[in-house]
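ugh ok so i messed up the first submission bc i forgot one of the chains. this is the corrected input, ALL of the components this time, i swear. 281 residues overall. if the numbers dont match what u have on ur side tell me asap before i send this to the collaborators (the ones from the other lab, u know who)
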Amino acid sequence: MTSEPNASPALPTVAFIGGGNMARSLIGGMVARGAQPSNIRVAEPDDATREALRADFGVSVFREAHEAADGAAIWVFAVKPQVMRVVCNGMQAVAGAHPPLAISVAAGITSTQMKHWLGGAAAVVRSMPNTPALLGAGVTGLFASPEVSDEQRAQADALLGAVGQTVWIDDEAQMDAVTAVSGSGPAYVFLLAEAMQAAGEAQGLPADAARTLATHTLMGAARMLVESGEPAAVLRKRVTSPGGTTQAAIETFESGGLRTLVDQAVTAATRRGRELSAAND
Ligand SMILES: NC(=O)C1=CN([C@@H]2O[C@H](COP(=O)(O)OP(=O)(O)OC[C@H]3O[C@@H](n4cnc5c(N)ncnc54)[C@H](O)[C@@H]3O)[C@@H](O)[C@H]2O)C=CC1
Ligand SMILES: O=C(O)[C@@H]1CCC=N1
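and heres the new structure output, hopefully the right one now
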């Protein structure tokens, strides 16, 4: 099931545990789309990162996780998978017998691991957002553990839906594939942008021109994919005149194994997600 972005979410107090790249994208996207900064608290040990969040978005910032978390209705865990267990264990005293909704954005870490590390009573939504959330153009896959109530599920959908599309996943094992396609996905597009720009420069284009041509081509094509609703293959064929320039390029991509390479890359990212779960158990 997918849903459209919400323009102005009415959210309860949210505490972000970890204020790095992904948290910044979510917080920036939420504030830009109408969330009250006074309802957003962030725990971040790095002084410069913490102060930048306060200065840029007006949110309340804290050095310690428990300071931000105490009294918040939703906890968003945005730390690296490698430290998640320690961070959750440190929250058990604040969680008590009735912990608030816990939303994890971490790659690999399962809802069962989160629940146990938080003391066994937590309702956990495992999510996988991506950094275009900063522009309200994110997409987030979400899985709700059995303890999550309908109201909590709606809260998670409102929070992540404020910064882009949401897609609910019924089988948690598929969250590693979500991570591999859309969580990591922006990096694949940025790699393609780098390669297109470099190739344009190699053909003699000035760097500025190559960047503008490559980046706006990606933006225009992405908008067509979303706004036309037509399959990618149909849009591709409309650009590809028989015997023309595009055909020469597409045949080069196909004979070079682009589809196989993309499949291998997504498979490697999916596998890495599973490894992160096992390695940090
Ligand atoms: N960067 C991305 O595009 C995406 C990242 N994620 C997930 O988001 C999580 C965070 O990733 P990033 O933001 O990229 O990493 P990051 O390294 O930029 O942010 C993590 C932050 O957690 C802070 N931190 C460390 N220990 C802490 C503690 N005890 N309490 C509070 N904060 C603590 C660090 O100082 C750091 O600022 C990871 O689990 C990752 O899998 C998910 C989707 C996309
Ligand atoms: O690379 C990572 O592990 C994280 C998860 C998805 C995007 N960044």
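quick check: Residues 107, 179, 183-184 surround A1CAB (ligand 2) (CB under 6 Å). that seems consistent at least. The first helix runs from residue 21 to 32.
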